[in-house]
Amino acid sequence: MRVFEIGEFGLIAKIAALIDSKSNKNTDSWKNLLIGVGDDAAAWKAHGGIELITTDILVEGTHFRLSYTEWHDLGWKSIAINISDIYAMGGKPQYALVSLAMPGLREVENVMEMFEGMIDVCNKYGIAIAGGNISASENVVINISLTGIAENSLMTRSSAKAGDLIAVFGYPGLSAAGLNALKNQRNLDPESMKLLKNAHLHPEPRLDIGPKLAACGVKTAIDISDGVLSDLAHICEASKVSAVLRTKDLPVHPLLKQHFQQDYIDMILTGGEDYELLFTAPRQVMDTVIEVMKPAPTIIGEITAGKPGEITIFDAEGKPITVDNRGWDHYKRAPSNG
Amino acid sequence: MRVFEIGEFGLIAKIAALIDSKSNKNTDSWKNLLIGVGDDAAAWKAHGGIELITTDILVEGTHFRLSYTEWHDLGWKSIAINISDIYAMGGKPQYALVSLAMPGLREVENVMEMFEGMIDVCNKYGIAIAGGNISASENVVINISLTGIAENSLMTRSSAKAGDLIAVFGYPGLSAAGLNALKNQRNLDPESMKLLKNAHLHPEPRLDIGPKLAACGVKTAIDISDGVLSDLAHICEASKVSAVLRTKDLPVHPLLKQHFQQDYIDMILTGGEDYELLFTAPRQVMDTVIEVMKPAPTIIGEITAGKPGEITIFDAEGKPITVDNRGWDHYKRAPSNG
């Protein structure tokens, strides 16, 4: 059986089952582990607090192309996407490690530009770059590991309950629109282009949004990396619940509707790489969040007690629709990369 | 300027200087950082204890070839080399994150074999695999991040003092000999081949050696990944001291001398990937280590107060010699990979 046949999520499920069945869990590390494989970050008890760690790999050709990506943006984004994961757990990011593999013929100046982008994002979010390593490879590969701490209780994917409202921050779909505009070299006005391009190349997680949401009492969150539908499905599967969405309630950015009249609903639902938080909470907690957080999130649906993992979407006329492509799976979409 | 012109260590020095000059250090994360860029692992104060983290990337073609590497060994080694880094700081490994990028056409069974190797090494050393991520790429790339805790004081690269004795565990050079035998398909007897092959493909850090050395009072250690000379030079540079080695005092494995009569001293000094610890300590501490640890390390030289980073090697006749190739630099040796 080939990897692309079962896809990224199928492979992760098999690996998680293997780790679960073959690991010797009679150790301090296993006993202190709070959240293992399958959430935005791992979490464990340490010295009376909670420590977090997440990791993400960016591969030239798969995750970015240097033809339309500035090195500074690449450095910024490589760490920003990990900040989003720490926030999705309710944590505060702390230490970043940078693993870099690249051809020896690359320019040192480009590497310095990339690190300037990394330092800029770290300065904004209070992170220290504490180490890493460098080696040779044919393509540029960047792996970031980011630690964090959680003062309040953790937000996870597995805690959603029937009756919870579902909300998102910002305007999902803008990153996918930016990628589309960059790849197809669409001739948009400079202001539109800048906004869409930045949504894709220079994502800025909302400062401290994770700890703030956790402090409001939110227990369930995920960052939108694979796409609204796919990431909501991750929550529904982990929490063994289902969900209802209404397209009329989705937050639609005016530029998205203007430039992608045919596709904008699909882009919002399946675009991915938005690095905004999607979360669920009972009405009372949601009211607190909407009162406290500015700009407030948008309520887009609710958690229901149906078949685990199932999502029903009601279109503008109130008819249920299904969307085939639920988001980004590195293999299901990209077998040709094999 | 191209990366291969300044090499891996030149590039790391430039990056470290950039991080040092441009980071906003007026943050909790910077204030609690004990060891940043430039040691085997990063270390920081957390909740009254010390947390550690290290990361390493393995790239197909650069670090391993699937033509002579079993998937199980690949999984084992990818985590073992990070355990060695945590031990080199005096820490105990805790949580591993696995970032994996590979072509979709690879066999799921191979990925499972690799994770079985990872789980085996984690079970031996009391580590929990706590997460990671998977994506597509043209070559297989594995990045491991490993956390740890330090109960005793840390061992670093920067604490060596003139008068310290220098010692190593085990038999450096066996890994390089194994790689040589594998690459050149040398026709050795099965027992020799097995030992050399395992030294390269299946390194086994000595269990708990890091915490044990730290408990003896050792303050200075490094794991031999680049090679004895190169890694000793890292200590000398970080500690602003020099060193003297005597080839007659090097630990020589009989098989190494037997099969590599011309090269065995070079292999011991510059081979790399041994994942044994090299450390320095005053005579009294060294006596304790040699009494307590079985098998005991071998004293190979001493730290002196000369030019920072300089290493003088005395050959069998007591004449000083110089060795050009000080160890593994991913770019200086491999510009053709660019």
Overall description:
The structure is a homodimer of 338-residue chains. With 338 residues, the first copy, chain A, is α+β, with helices and mostly antiparallel strands. The first copy, chain A, has eleven helices and 13 strands. Chain A has three domains: 37 residues, no CATH class; 112 residues, PurM-like, N-terminal domain (60s Ribosomal Protein L30, Chain: A, 2-Layer Sandwich), CATH 3.30.1330.10; 164 residues, Phosphoribosyl-aminoimidazole Synthetase, Chain A, domain 2 (Alpha-Beta Complex), CATH 3.90.650. A seven-stranded mixed β-sheet of chain A has the order 8-10-7-11-9-12-13, sandwiched between helices. In chain A, a hairpin with a 5-residue loop joins β12 and β13. In chain A, α3 packs parallel to α4 and α5 packs across α6. In chain A, 57% of the residues are buried. The interface between A and B is large, with 90 and 90 residues.
Walk me through the topology:
Two copies of one chain form a homodimer.
Chain A: H1 3-22, H2 28-32, E1 33-35, E2 42-46, E3 49-59, H3 71-88, E4 92-102, H4 108-125, E5 128-136, E6 141-150, E7 165-168, H5 174-183, H6 190-201, H7 209-216, E8 220-223, H8 228-239, E9 242-246, H9 254-259, H10 264-270, E10 277-281, H11 283-292, E11 298-304, E12 311-314, E13 320-321
Properties at a glance:
globular, disordered C terminus, 7-stranded mixed sheet, homodimer, 338 residues, 60s Ribosomal Protein L30, Chain: A, 11 helices, 3 domains, 6-stranded mixed sheet, alpha+beta, Phosphoribosyl-aminoimidazole Synthetase, Chain A, domain 2
